[in-house]
Amino acid sequence: MKKPKIAWITDTTSSLSKEFIKQHNIHVIPLHVVINDKFYKETIDITEEDFYNRMKNEEGKFQSSQPNIGDIVDLYEKLKEEYDFGIAIHASSTLTGTYQTSVMATEMAGFKLFAIDSHTGSYPLSFLVKRGVELVEKGVDINEVVTQLNALREHTRLFLVPSNLDQLHKSGRVSGSQKILASLFNIKPILSIEDGAAKIKDKVRTEKKALAWLVNNLKDDLHSKKVQKVAIVHANDRERAAGLEQLVNETFPHIETEKLMLITVAGVHTGVGTLGLSWVNE
Question: CATH 3.40.50.10170 occupies which residues in the chain?
Fold first, then answer.
């Protein structure tokens, strides 16, 4: 029986390396970032680093936007000619409409697609893509691959600590009075991506306590679960990210770590200087 030719599709919220994308021929749909009403395609017109530099140094409105459906239809029309079907793993449908747009586009193009709403983004989304590729290469049945990836979504962790509440206030996530109180008392909200949505998981005093909170949550999972790698995510603050990575390495010397720039879809709300930890329980 002839082995089916499968196209892998994701979006720029997956934070996959250029090497992995090239090696496995991943088709990456760029989301848009919007700066003062001007649209830029992520990773094509603007890098995450450039975006955060501009957010830090420019006044104005910083937003994100889902891809144009016409661009995705064009992609699927091309893939239809070359592949038997596709597997698309996208950022949480609660945080961006990319998943819904992808599903609509595949129907318009007549391209057979197994679409997965990752319920997350950033490192956990990259993990799901890599695991999917690995399972297919092992010859696992496509329906079983989708089942396993859907099950794995519930075991992802992504926690973020904004350096301040400026951007959360601008995007309407916190009120002016909340911002003032947080600043006065040095309160750090800890955000969690759970069931596809961003939630305030806890509030602590001082950044030191916030980072200890992150490490302790990882420690709790390690009591009963296996974690091979931890990602330190940051909104263009390499120095503080290196400090958090050192803390993780000292506490858990057996776990591999990597540093990732925070996806701009999250960064438009949490702002420059956001730090976080992410892992997947296996």
Answer: 6-153
**Considering only CA atoms, which of 72, 40, 74, 70 is closest in space to residue 55?**
40
Contact between residue 101 and residue 117 where contact means Cβ atoms under 8 Å apart: no
pTM of the model: 0.91
> Which amino acid is present at 129?
V
CATH code 3.30.1180.10 region(s) in the chain:
156-280
* Beta carbons of 109 and 77 less than 8 angstroms apart: yes
Length of the chain: 282
> What topology does CATH give the domain 6-153?
Rossmann fold (3.40.50)
Could you say which DSSP state residue 266 is in? H
Which 3 state secondary structure label does DSSP give 61? coil
Please tell me the distance from the alpha carbon of residue 182 to that of residue 194, in angstroms, as a whole number: 23
Per-10-residue mean pLDDT of the chain, 282 residues long, equals: 90 96 97 93 92 91 90 98 97 93 97 97 97 96 96 96 63 44 62 87 91 97 96 96 97 97 87 94 94
CATH assignment, 156-280: 3.30.1180.10
